[in-house]
Every structure is written in C-alpha cells, then in structure tokens.
Amino acid sequence: MKKLARLIFVSLVLAATLFAADSTQTQLPYNQEKYAMQAKAADENTPELQQTMQKQSAVKAALFSAILPGAGQVYAKSYWKAVLFVGIEAALWSVNYVYNGKAKDEDTRMRAFGDVHWSEQKYWSKIYEKAVERGAWNGSELHVGADHIILDDDYNNPTVRNELREMESAIGTHSLPTTKTQQYYEMIYKYLHQFGVGWDDAPSFDYYDEQANILHTTDHISTYRDMRDRSNGYYDVAGNMLKLVMVNHLASLFDAAWTVKSNNKKIGYAFRVKQQFTGYGYATTYGLNIIW
To answer: Residue 157 carries which DSSP code?
Structure first.
C-alpha cells in the first residue's frame, strides 16, 4: 500500500507539472524526451500491474487448505498464516499420537492386571453353583473343591464349558465374550453382581450376591477401574485432538478463501502515456490507470 501511495503521489505531481508546462504553449508539440521517460515508467510498471490483475481462485485455495491446512494460505501468498495453520496441525497430531500411545500402554497394563486378578474359572464355577441351586443344570455332576471351584479336569472339558455357557443366559444378565475383547474387560468390573465373584480378593464366594455389596469394590477392582478410567481418559484426549484437527482444516479453508477474495479486491494501477492528435497538432497526454 505504501508503494501504491508513493506511485500515485509521484505520478500526480508529475502529471500536474507537465500539464502546467504544456498549457502555456499555444501549440502542443511532440516532446520526445518526456514521452520516452513516461513510456519507460509505464513499461516498468506493466508487469506489476499484470500480476495484480491476475485474480486467484478462492475455490482452489479452499480445496488446498481442506487437504492440508496452510496450503491455501501459501497459494494466497499469506505465508505467516500458512505457518500458523501448519503449526497448529502438527501440534494437534503430535498430542493425538502421544495420548493414543499413553492410552494403549495403560490399556495393556490394565488387561494384564485383570488377567492376573480375575478368574474365569471362579466365574464359571459360580454359574454352575447357581444353576444347581435353581435346578437348571441338566449336565453331568461336576467335581467341585472346598473353595467352590470346579476342578480342572471337569473345567477344561470343552463339553462342560459349552454347557456352562448355555446356562449363563439363564443365570446372569450379561454374556461374557468368548474372546478377550474390550467388552470382556469392561464387563468384569462394571457388573459386579454377576462378575464380581471372579476377583481374587472378593470377600467371599457369595459376597456380590447381596445387592447391598454391589457398590463395595475391593482394592483390586478399584485399581483396575482406575487404570481403565485413565486409559479411557487418554483416548478421550486423543479423540478431542482429532476433532480439533477437523476444526483447523475448516478454519484454514475459510480463511484461505477469504484471503484470496480480499487479495482480488486490491487496487491495480499503471501509468498511461500516449500521443493524441488535436486540432492544433499532437499533444503528449499522461495519466494513471486505476483498476479494482
């Protein structure tokens, strides 16, 4: 803008001076020296004018930024904004990566803790005991130890395991996944009325049969729950970073389009010098083209 103002001021002063000089003459003779000087000025400014007049595409800028924030700003020659949007994008992805890593590490520790302190064998033994109490067990009688646990020879029998799973839907409100999925690890601490018996520090085999005890978590259950909460919290942070990544893409998209539209409204300018025939002869005319 300073350059534009300077060029306008100089050209207007020059035009006024030359006009005053020429107006004192009855004839308007051809002035080769002045014409050459002004023609040179026009030639020097024409490339700049052409560059100014080449309008950019707001759609292109928006698409560039939609793909990579900051790319549209580079297209619009707004380089400091490009650095800003690229920096934000890099920071968000970095935080996402770090917190995804933390979540996975905590989840791995939590699962290992659950595998050590929660027993499927105790859980299925409880299902068998309840089925027998209700007269719902149709299979062969299983051998149970003094601690209520089905002995390994029966427990490791595939037929017995299938029979226990068939009983589960009649005894409990949830079905334990056949593989150790995320749902598996969620269930063993969320639904203590059914799965609480499997924890190795449960006060007794029948402790969680009492509704009043459902809210009483053992040390191992509390530790496991805290690990699960931390893992979920880390995943939440990572997920929020992805949401902000989308916001950054949209912000860069709209800013790039707006910047291009603003650039296209800037004033173009150029000197105009030509010889014009009048009734008295040729006159050198000077001017300034303003384009917006």
So the answer is: -
